[in-house]
Design brief:
cytoplasm, Cilia- and flagella-associated protein 300, cytoskeleton
Length: 220
């Protein structure tokens, strides 16, 4: 156990399939995400409980083994280690209870997507730096969209929904899809590989046992 009861971390050389998949890499490039995504795995030396999240992420972003290896996009292109120790952090729990891609069936039911997967278009508008030219992006970004309330505020906080937003909106140079299927298949693959599920021995129902946090660190 780490001295002083702190969490200690060690980088593992684990690769995730979706980061190596040629088709997904091509989509990331098309969506302006290639070169801006990094996935790394660390082990830690103490048992973790969700209520310890603040101490956990603070120890994480202050550990020299992390600050020297945790990669961030560089202004010069590519990635470079964080380097600096965090003075303070905030960690917000992100719910991840959804277990089925049926969650997105309402895109079809509510008329944002045709039966064959084609996304319904709309007149171009520019919102928060994004070109909004279809009903899905309009639903995500514009409160005056007829479909803005298709998902509740609680559902919009779900990790699965956030991943969907990330790939649909893309990066600075994003070529958008005309069909929703590449978005959904990519999100499904990422979600399954990042989270762990377990079967309840009594009910036999599956539930997610992973914890997801949105972390913000400030350098002193």
């Amino acid at each position: 156990m780490a001295a002083g009861g702190k969490f200690g971390f060690q980088l593992l050389s684990r690769k995730f399939g979706f980061m190596e998949d040629r088709e997904i890499k091509d989509l990331f490039m098309k969506w302006g995400l290639q070169g801006y995504l990094s996935v790394q795995t660390y082990t830690f030396e103490k048992q973790f409980q969700a209520y310890q999240k603040d101490d956990f992420v603070l120890d994480f972003l202050r550990d020299p083994k992390v600050t020297s290896t945790l990669l961030m996009p560089s202004k010069r292109g590519g990635f470079s280690p964080v380097g600096s120790v965090a003075a303070s952090v905030t960690a917000k729990a992100v719910p991840c209870s959804i277990l089925s891609m049926d969650f997105f069936d309402r895109l079809h039911a509510d008329g944002l997507v045709h039966e064959d997967g084609r996304i319904c278009g709309c007149f171009d508008e520019f919102v928060e730096g994004f070109t909004v030219s279809d009903e899905i992006r309009k639903m995500l970004l514009m409160e005056d969209s007829d479909h803005y309330d298709l998902y509740s505020e609680e559902e919009k906080e779900q990790f699965l929904f956030l991943l969907f937003c990330h790939v649909v909106l893309g990066g600075g140079c994003c070529q958008y899809e005309d069909n929703v299927d590449p978005y959904l298949s990519t999100v499904k693959t990422i979600y399954k590989q990042l989270l762990s599920v377990q079967k309840d021995p009594t009910t036999k129902a599956l539930h997610v046992i992973s914890n997801v946090f949105r972390v913000t660190g400030l350098v002193g």
